[in-house]
Specification:
The chain is mainly beta and about 475 residues long. Helices cover about 5% and strands about 40% of the residues. It starts with 5 loop residues before the first helix and ends in a 9-residue tail after the last strand.
Length: about 475
């Protein structure tokens, strides 16, 4: 029912109160409250765009969603009502049934496209595509200050990954044999120039201020070269550990170096003695404070001061020089036990599988690298990359045979035992296959860890191509503003 003179009705209520008080003293006087607050707000069942089965078993593009449990915050000072936890993408809010509690009196609202109030009833279907104002009219005649009600709906599919491309360029030109590493708000790329000279470049990806804007953006800055780098860097050896980046450099006898990323000076220093030489740098374990390498054809670990042998060298069967990717997890039953997984290409044969190794650091710190059998093997992807993202291991890369480059992610939820192709949500744009070919199969990848603050929440995947251009991806829900 639409009433153009709703305030007049409230005045009549007040008049009734006055008339009662003019009777003789034997009549009990009634005083009406002047409170005009909305004390509760909730939604009913709404329509949502998602494919489901109707009663006949046929696909139906519209389903229903019970929204009664979505909490709404009522700000009594500013007179606003909103849901911090947004409704799922595709929820219809043009015909909404509401449940509202308020102080005694009447509740009115202004429908969309109208210039006067309407009395609210619990059966009204209200259009909330724009904020709607509600106000309480007390029986005493007081007209309450209006509440602005806003219903938030996600505009992005939460579990879908979104990508954005940045046309940056390396200052050194095109780089091959890349390895990207994230550390201290920057993505570092180790690579080789066309003349085979090795170099290191970085871009800042966290808290980058933009002139004229209040909040920093997540966009990467221009690439900057790290000065005074050693010659003959093993670009595939770069690994983040203990807050810095470690890598090997040298011709036949490779030595271990540390790139200090805690300042913008990016100082590089030799680690250990000149007599310490290595065949491979495998990766780091920040939980146990251990850095793993192959030294004198033995696997070993470094605690920042001394090296200790841990067994034979299982990496001796690797054919050629490829980047090794590692990830460490703690045992669910004992936080003192960690397992580190290392993944690497085995060869360029299409029928091969990617090699996976594991190292368990037990309570006695006496672990050993072993070759790990895969129950559901990962196909041999050219220039394979493994990342730890959203609590899972993902692998991707170029293709062999019928597998196209960057055709899909492969996911493992059991620490590298089984790899399954991802068929929904997590996907690469079709152009990535073309980019891979156009950039001569040269790329690298790093992941920004989860960093919760007002301006940057991390969780980005950074894919860097041969020329320094960057593709940034993130699962949408990992970038949503926290609910509370």
């Amino acid at each position: 029912m639409k009433i153009k003179f709703l305030p007049l009705i409230a005045v009549l209520f007040a008049a009734t109160s006055i008339m009662t008080s003019c009777l003789d003293n034997d009549v009990e006087q009634i005083t009406y409250t002047s409170e005009t607050s909305i004390t509760g707000f909730s939604l009913g069942t709404l329509n949502i765009d998602r494919i489901g089965k109707d009663k006949n078993g046929l696909d139906s593009p519209v389903d229903t969603l019970d929204c009664s449990n979505y909490p709404f915050t009522i700000d009594q000072i500013n007179r606003t009502i909103t849901n911090k936890d947004s409704l799922p993408v595709g929820t219809h809010i043009d015909k909404v049934i509401t449940s509202i509690t308020y102080d005694a009196g009447m509740l009115g609202y202004t429908p969309k496209g109208s210039d006067h109030d309407t009395i609210w009833t619990s059966t009204d279907s209200i259009d909330f595509t724009d904020p709607v104002e509600f106000k309480v009219y007390a029986y005493s005649g007081v007209e309450g200050k209006p509440y602005k009600v806003t219903i938030n709906v996600h505009k992005q599919e939460p579990d879908t990954i979104s990508w954005k491309k940045f046309d940056n360029s390396f200052s050194a030109g095109s780089l091959s044999e890349q390895k990207a590493v994230y550390a201290n708000g920057k993505v570092y790329v180790f690579g080789k120039k066309n003349d085979e000279t090795t170099c290191i470049e970085y871009t800042k990806v966290i808290n980058v201020s933009v002139p004229g804007e209040e909040k920093p953006k997540d966009n990467p800055t221009s690439w900057t070269s790290v000065p005074n780098v050693p010659t003959n860097i093993d670009t595939y050896s770069a690994t983040a550990w203990a807050g810095n980046i470690y890598f090997l450099a040298g011709t036949n006898s490779k030595q271990l170096y540390k790139l200090d990323v805690t300042t913008d000076n990016n100082e590089i220093s030799l680690v250990g003695l000149n007599t310490d030489t290595f065949e491979k740098l495998i990766g780091g374990n920040d939980v146990k404070n251990e850095l793993y390498a192959v030294k004198e054809n033995k696997s070993c670990k470094f605690n920042g001061t001394t090296w200790e042998e841990t067994g034979a060298n299982p990496f001796s069967n690797l054919q050629g020089n490829y980047p090794i990717f590692t990830n460490t997890i703690q045992a669910s039953y004992n936080s003192k036990i960690t397992t580190t997984i290392a993944l690497c290409n085995s060869s360029k044969a299409a029928n091969d599988t990617v090699l996976v190794f594991s190292y368990m650091s037990n309570e006695a710190n006496k672990g050993e690298w072993v070759s790990r059998a895969q129950n559901l093997p990962l196909p041999n992807l050219e220039n394979v990359t493994m990342i730890y993202y959203d609590g899972k291991l993902y692998a991707f890369g170029g293709g062999y045979g019928e597998i196209k480059p960057f055709s899909q992610f492969y996911c493992s939820t059991d620490n590298g035992l089984c790899w399954r192709p991802v068929t929904e949500c997590m996907a690469f744009p079709a152009e990535f296959s073309e980019l891979y070919t156009a950039h001569n199969k040269n790329y690298s990848c790093a992941v920004t860890p989860k960093l919760e603050n007002e301006t940057y929440r991390g969780n980005f995947i950074w894919i860097v191509w041969e020329d320094g251009s960057i593709c940034r991806g993130r699962i949408n829900r990992l970038g949503f503003t926290p609910k509370w």
